[in-house]
Amino acid sequence: MVLAVRQFVEKEVVPVAAEHEQAGRYPAHLVRVLSDLGILGAVVPPPYGGLGLDLETYAMIVEELARGWTTVAGVVTAHATAAWTVARSGTSEQRQTLLPAMTRGEILGAAALGEGVTVRRDRTDFVLAGTTGLVDNAPRAQLFVTLGRADDGRRALVLLTRGTPSLALGTPEPTLGSRGLDPARLWLDGARVPGAAVLESEDGGEAAVAAALGMARLGLAATAVGLAQAAFEAALRYSQQRSAFGKPICQHQAIQLKLADMATAITAARLLTYHAAGRLQAGDDVPAGLAGLYAAEVAYEVTLEAMRVHGGYGYTTEFPVERYYRDAPRLMLALAGAERAELARRLLGS
């Protein structure tokens, strides 16, 4: 499956990524092809029509997609986070209703896992209010896995459908990189949902929240590894073609040291991501946070060094490294501030 995705990226994604990205165009055709390949159901159990892949294989697939274009990877990771959460923590009825349609791409999912939404119980229902952070692919998603916080500080995952009363979608925000994802905020003004919409795993609501966040962070880490790999490959290729002082610049020690450091960091980030995938499969979400933090920083550093290898050409749209460099900050910002503090608390056991 990973090989099939790699071939798809080379034949379908890479040739159109630059044009689509510059136009801010959503990759609708590519998403349809991914649906036909079964990728939208990669982590959905086979009884619901999915591939039922393990999370390490899923991370490899995301890495390949990000190597072609992070926007495509962003669509898939947002959808997979929602689908995996429903499969893991949803009711039998929710799984039967939602997962087959999500696997076929008839329902696209998204994850609104930032702070800003409150949830309170009102008899058998729950009422949500507030504003989410930016949600990737929100304009096209029909299902939102949303994080809410109760008055007592406890967190809960809530399934929201696009047609939920008092749920409004904000205007998509223009972004520096990963154009075409069209991130937008969700506005909740007393949105009422039935009790079954609040998800709980076998270990309770907080465990469901931790698992969903772990899945989102795993997708981010794999995206970062794929982006860094693309930047490294571009730098390596250019260093073999560009000559200075009578020989290819890859034969100069300064460039060789950069390439060696880039390859080392990418390998470490990849291994950490695969380790995190295995641990998340076993129920431990903390390594996914570690992988997300490290891989995002590696992606930022590698894309910057790839631009430096290209020299002035790296700043032009003639080469893809300027796009890679613009895509990297989104991954770092996704795990900044409160995310780091939460990870530290988890590591300290508090």
Task: Give the key terms.
350 residues; single chain; elongated; 55% helix; alpha+beta; Butyryl-Coa Dehydrogenase, subunit A, domain 1; 10 helices; Butyryl-CoA Dehydrogenase, subunit A, domain 2; 3 domains; Butyryl-CoA Dehydrogenase, subunit A, domain 3; four-stranded antiparallel β-sheet; four-stranded mixed β-sheet
Biggest β-sheet: strands ordered side by side in the sheet: 1-4-5-8
Provide mean pLDDT, rounded: 94
Named CATH architecture of the largest domain: Up-down Bundle
- The arrangement of helices and strands along the chain is HHHHHEEEEEEEEHEEHHHH
Structural class: alpha+beta
Say how many strands there are: 10
Helix content: 55-70%
| The top level CATH class name of the largest domain | Mainly Alpha
Q: How much strand content do the residues show?
A: 5-15%
CATH superfamily of the largest domain: Butyryl-CoA Dehydrogenase, subunit A, domain 3
Number of helices: 10
